[in-house]
Amino acid sequence: MLKQGAKLVESPQDIFEELDVPTLPLTRQEPTIAQEGESANSALFDLMGHNPVAMETLHSRCNLTVSQLSAMLLALELEGHVSVLPGGLYQRIH
Q1: Burial class (CB in 10 A: 0-12, 13-18, 19+), 40
Q2: Which of 20, 41, 78, 89 is deepest in the core (most CB within 10 A)?
């Protein structure tokens, strides 16, 4: 498959690079939680809160496209920080 253009994925960063996902901190309309040096994934993790949250809710809280948000949620899931619940809800794993 590599000869046909597939790429080896060793980390979530490989997915971000392929999807051209920005690594800038997230912002929201309320006071921002993103701080200098904080990764975009960490900022998204903070935006999630502690209760299960829908993708639409997260989308309204940040300035990312749905595809960028999906990629970041997938990376957090692969890293073991987020779980996908029935109904498409996302929740932080403590």
Answers
A1: buried
A2: 41
DSSP assigned state of 79: T
| C-alpha to C-alpha distance for 4 and 11, rounded to whole angstroms | 21
pTM of the model: 0.57
Contact 25/40 with Cβ under 8 angstroms? yes
Separation CA 17–CA 93 (nearest Å): 25
Q: Are 70 and 59 in contact (CB under 8 A)?
A: no
Residues in the chain: 94
pLDDT digits (tens, 9 = 90+) for 46-77: 788 889 999 999 888 887 888 888 888 888 88
Q: How far apart are CA 69 and CA 45, in angstroms?
A: 11
Sign of CA dihedral 33, 75, 22, 61: negative
